[in-house]
Amino acid sequence: MTSPHSTTRDARLDFRLSQEHKRMVEQAATINGQSVSDFVIANVIEAARRTIDEVTVTRLSMHDRDTFLKLIEADATPSKALKAAADRYRERRA
Fold first, then answer.
1. Enclosing domain of residue 80
2. 74: which of 12, 18, 43, 93 lies 20 to 30 Å off by Cα?
3. Averaged over 67-94, what is the pLDDT?
């Protein structure tokens, strides 16, 4: 995970916002002891990470995690249907 300060700042995002929103951002940055740029960058990066995580990370309950681990650790014998599917797959790749 990188912080907003860990990489060279060589790209720009330009956007407009209302005066009211700008004042809110400035006030929040001041409260956090940050520059407006640092405040915006940190919060935009965090929002981007959350958005990406929502579609790329699967979270399991402890019960579901335990069930999943038991299933992948089990020494299961493949069914006839699974063996046939594997054979078809191998034939297509050959």
1. 19-93
2. 93
3. 91
